[in-house]
Specification:
With 114 residues, the chain is mainly α. The chain has helices spanning 7-33, 37-53, 57-72, 75-98, 104-109. The protein has one domain (12-98).
């Protein structure tokens, strides 16, 4: 896994993982089940943009997929991305742990199944 070299980005990356884990767990299905095109599209757009800022390109691709699902009203497909995205966040979390980049407090804040 390739991470950005910017030390400030690396310092903020654990918060990024924690925040997006919580958002994916709660908001993705909520917007898809409500068939809320605007909020689902905006959610995907935000995931795409913030992932790119943090240099996590594979997550930005999920943002694009969510946007496409919103535009085409593929609500079940969008909701179905939840586990894939959470798995990607889990892999990122584990990588941060192996690199010593995940502070102890954030290890406690993340769900144990991640």
């Amino acid at each position: 896994m390739k991470l950005p070299e910017d030390p400030i980005i690396l310092e903020l990356l654990p918060d990024f993982v924690l925040s997006w884990t919580k958002d994916i767990e709660t908001r993705l299905e909520e917007f898809a089940k409500a068939e809320n095109e605007y909020e689902l599209y905006r959610f995907g757009h935000t995931l795409k943009g913030s992932s790119r800022q943090f240099g996590v390109e594979h997550l930005s691709e999920y943002g694009s997929k969510i946007q496409e699902c919103a535009k085409t009203h593929q609500w079940a497909v969008a909701a179905g991305l939840k586990n894939e995205i959470l798995q990607s966040l889990q892999e990122l979390k584990l990588y941060l742990e192996t690199q010593g980049l995940l502070p102890a407090q954030q290890k406690q804040d993340l769900p144990s199944n991640l």
